[in-house]
Amino acid sequence: MPETEEAIHKQILELGKKARRASREMMGMSADEKNHALLAMADALERRKEKIQEENARDVSEARDAGLSDALVDRLVLDDKRMAAMTQGLRDIAKLPDPVGRTLKSWEKENGLILEKRAVPIGVIGMIYESRPNVTADAAALCLKASNAIILRGGSEALRSNQAIADALQEGGSATKLPADAIQLVPVRDRKAVTSLITMDEYVDMIIPRGGEGLIRAIAENATVPVLKHYKGICHVYVDGDADPEKAWSIVENAKCQRPGVCNAAETLLVDLSIGEEWLIRMAEILQKRGVELRGDEKSREIVASMLPATGEDWHTEYLDMILSVRVVDGIEQAVEHINQYGSGHSDAIVTRNKGRQEYFGKMVDSAAVYINASTRFTDGAEFGMGAEIGISTDRLHARGPVALEELTTYKYVVTGDGQIKE
Amino acid sequence: MPETEEAIHKQILELGKKARRASREMMGMSADEKNHALLAMADALERRKEKIQEENARDVSEARDAGLSDALVDRLVLDDKRMAAMTQGLRDIAKLPDPVGRTLKSWEKENGLILEKRAVPIGVIGMIYESRPNVTADAAALCLKASNAIILRGGSEALRSNQAIADALQEGGSATKLPADAIQLVPVRDRKAVTSLITMDEYVDMIIPRGGEGLIRAIAENATVPVLKHYKGICHVYVDGDADPEKAWSIVENAKCQRPGVCNAAETLLVDLSIGEEWLIRMAEILQKRGVELRGDEKSREIVASMLPATGEDWHTEYLDMILSVRVVDGIEQAVEHINQYGSGHSDAIVTRNKGRQEYFGKMVDSAAVYINASTRFTDGAEFGMGAEIGISTDRLHARGPVALEELTTYKYVVTGDGQIKE
Lengths: 423, 423
Description:
Chains A, B: It is found in: Cytoplasm. Chain A is of the alpha/beta class.
């Protein structure tokens, strides 16, 4: 059923208006009321499990018929294990501390005014994501916990699954203090709906896109609502001349191989050869034994001839695969320059025992997370102790790195006086 | 000399590249080095005072010839008093604490990783402003103090003055550790330069526009770089039934009359008549004696017949003048609803002795600054104790309310380990 642009725009605008109203009501919800809603939503997911899996089966079979790759189809599937994880996710979020209402800072002025900088909800979040239907529940729960209303726009291939999950969440919430429009799903497959969602500044305060770089760039270019972007993770490990050789081997191997398909995996090794050529020879053996393809610059290939030659393109590439580019640098300054030039501002590590260089690296590398003697693989809301994350930001403003509950709030000043007026 | 779009774009792109390089160098500047640069810049402004005033006189005479209003011409003028204030501003900023490098939070994980959330510079700021040439020095100094590079784009009628000030700042900085391109001024009058500035995401991290709502909307609509917006100040005072009548008179009078042309002045009075009709009658007398034109809704005009009738438009209007709209509300809920619907999220006040209503107002009014028993006129970086401000944000993300040194920083995580790898 093709719909006109205008009809779709009107429909999305209506979702926006409702979300804004809901977000205002949510400003008054207590922590208990929010947690109660989360638990009721978890119960509803369990109650409606069969219905959700039925709808999911229809999405999956349609995706297969449409010739989607096995990997994409796998992401779609909501088996019992994934259903249970989704439900447990909601219960875990209920246990986390309330991010709203925290006093971030408080001080008194000479005139007796008391200023409080207080954490408050952002308002309405627009969440745009691809295949995995579990994001529907995860994102809704995190936004709710931070007292934000959410408008969800999942992948069109998962629309039935997402709708069934959203229905369950709404049913669960309906017996609680949660406003009916706190969680809404965009019900149309047409891409024009996204254009409307990302341009209605009046009703949406932040867009969080989750997906490939292409999706995110397209959204950022066309949005007028602020977008919290995660472009890519071109992460580096710099092995300094003063590195502990054992730790350096282990950190590089972990950063590359432990899970190469994720954004905080390393893509480039930078090495100062004053650690000794033997270090690099052994490193190459370890990685090649794990099945890593090495692409080196000229100097590193003089030492390890089995490396393929790296091209200029390699330094810009997020492989998300068992491939590592290798460059010999002549010290920390060149390493930092390389990282700031080619990196994506995500996660970068130094391995060294030298205190001065640890400090220099921590100060001069312009990334969301900078590691000293540890693997880049720790950049993650749970690993940082922030609870579940809704995403990771490679942006510089508002939030950087893992975006969890606190990052889903903003602040306001509450100023209490006793009749003070400005002289 | 008309220039082609392409030539201008290339020129601005070049400024951007240089600013990015300078901003990376500035990450390594110590507090002392920055303060030294600020003081040297202040000295240079004094040394070059005559030259600056000469260039300013040319701008002023040209503006007069072009028929600019007296008010606009007045803003342009750099007399001795303004020159001294500008110089003193730089010296004051040198005395403020360094906003960069602060540990915002620090914690240890069970695996021994130590996480530090550290304040760091944003990078490159694009500042777009209208007439007043003193903004050139103020904005440059604040950005420098937060280790940000700045690209300045002032009003074209002030180009000679701005250039003379920027030259002085650069000369002052040149004898210090400040990178030569830390402070750059867009040297072309053509508006196409603004289009380039606000779309080169790769080189500019944040745009701060200062000017009328029209300017800011045009920038926000066309920018791909994040814009810190200040749209307008439609500020309210709500006088509750339990207000101290004397304090309520004094706060409303102050919020409206002390300086009506600024964004934190009140534009609308909301009153719960359970305080007594006499309160409103006396309030109207006080305000009318000060020369305020009152525009009331039906109910308030039944009590004070001398008010003009308010139209729907009035609730949306930032008068910036001795005009106040007045509406009778039936309690705090209606007051909050009015503020959240018509306000601009800037500064809003309640006057009441009732604790529960103070709390409700503080929680439910969705504005950058919420006042309890105090005038809205205090929303200002200096009044809040933050030092000088570069602007006020009515946005919700990154910074809300006064934007001073801390708001000109972002953060990163520095994670220190001892060889930790992800299991």
